[in-house]
Amino acid sequence: MTSQTPAAEPLPQPTASRTDRLRTWVSRETTGGVLLLGAALVAILFANSPWRDAYTTLSETRVGPAALHLDLTLAHWASDGLLAIFFFVVGLELKRELVTGSLRHPREAAVPMLAAVGGMLVPAAFYTALVLLTRDTTALSGWAIPTATDIAFALAVLAVFGRGLPTAVRTFLLTLAVVDDLLAIVVIAIFYTETVSWGPLGLAVVGLVLFRLLVRARRVLWWVLLPLAVVIWALVHASGIHATVAGVMMGFLVPALLVHGEPESRTHRFENVWNPLSSGIALPVFAFFAAGVTVVGIPLADVFVQGATLGVLAGLIIGKCIGVLGTTWLVTRLTPLRLAQGIGIRDLLPVGLLAGIGFTVSLLIVELSFDPGSEHGTGAKIAVLLGSVVSAVAGALALRHDARRTDRTNDMNLDGIPDDITDHIGDKKS
């Protein structure tokens, strides 16, 4: 008889810990969108409940050392402090896209980048025109409110309703949203900074140089980087520039290429650490404090005829879509630039609608534009929330319609080269 050697049993695969599974779950685009939406809904209900005075008291509670001018309200800590974590992640993502991602080839990145510019200019023009038409010139300071796109919400809607579309659609939206947020930070730094204290700003620059050296060192010393990051944030805050700018600047200083023989880039490592904190804590907490607008006792009929309210609604719902689609159409018709393989102008209708989901950054700009609780501030917040919801629903419907169409050609971008598309939104990665 011939004896057979029993087959070797497969080695047991390591199982992810509960912490790892939680971090993975929180980092999903759909989860981030749900958490944001949930926090906003809780805030709206709280702010319009019989306990709305408690919500106001909580938002206005001051915490922090007064000697360092950091005795801020909890709402202020959420917008200046926690939101800096979100913009740090945005800075990491932008650095990665510029060095190794979709922005590394100027010809491929040019169209969504220009679309982002158009998607900011046209809504600003809509807002300004409507404010002037209503002769409510005191609201002109809010012109930048409808120019922003919420990355987390927009990508969450795309992930759910865009299944089956080429992944190039997601790349276009991601590029547009990242550039949009970067430009929004520039706008905040330039137009929403009243005075600049050059001493703290100079020290912040020194801190950024030190941060750059430490973040490129052979060994990342977290116990040094974290306190240094807090100091840089505090110095930028003390300079008069909005402190979220510090987050973007530090994120942009992290190396996106492999260094010291490491198996993965440091931008990727840092994103793995900070993205769950951004999606699971920073953004929902900010949404909780920013979205809680009280409408009880307010004549809504008067709110919806304000220039600020009409301008934000028109800018987000109509202006964003026209700006993105119009700019893309002009660029691809009048220049040699083309869309990425697999997508055409028709695929950008849902993208343009999703770009109207302003939410996070739009709410931040509302707080920078108007005094808390002011008539214009209340109207603008209502418009941001309503405009973002309308844009999300319209974008979701447009995505499902586009994904179900069967008339896609093999040259959607009209560049004369057959498209070679193998990856689609929703495909399971091995």
Question: What report would you give on this structure?
Answer:
Helix content is 64%, strand content 1%. It has 430 residues and is mostly helical. Strand 1 (62-63) and strand 2 (72-73) form a beta hairpin. Helix 2 (29-47) crosses helix 6 (151-161), helix 4 (74-99) packs across helix 7 and helix 6 (151-161) packs parallel to helix 16 (375-404).
Sheet with the most strands, sense and barrel status = 2 strands, antiparallel
Record the strand order, biggest sheet: 1-2
Low-confidence segments: none
Give a count of the beta strands, DSSP E runs of length 2 or more: 2
Multimerization status = single chain
Strand content: under 5%
The succession of helices and strands, N to C, reads HHHEEHHHHHHHHHHHHH
Mean pLDDT: 86
The backbone outline, from C-alpha atoms, is globular
Give the key terms.
16 helices; globular; two-stranded antiparallel sheet
